[in-house]
Amino acid sequence: MADRAALAAFLRARREALQPEDVGLPRGRRRRTGGLRREEVAALCDLSADYYGRLEQPRGPHPSEQMLAALARGLRLSLEERDHLFRLGGHAVPRRVRRADHVDPGTMRILDRLEDTPALVMNHLGETLRQTRPAVALLGDTMAYTGPARSAHYRWFTDPAARLVRPPDDHAEHSRLMVADLHGARTRDGADSRAAELVDVLGRESAEFAAIWREHPVLGPVCAPKRFLHPQLGEMELHCQTLHDPERSQRLVVYTATPGTESDTDLRLLSLLPDHLSQNQGASGR
Question: What is the tens place of the pLDDT at every residue in 109-126?
Answer without folding.
Answer: 899 889 889 999 999 899
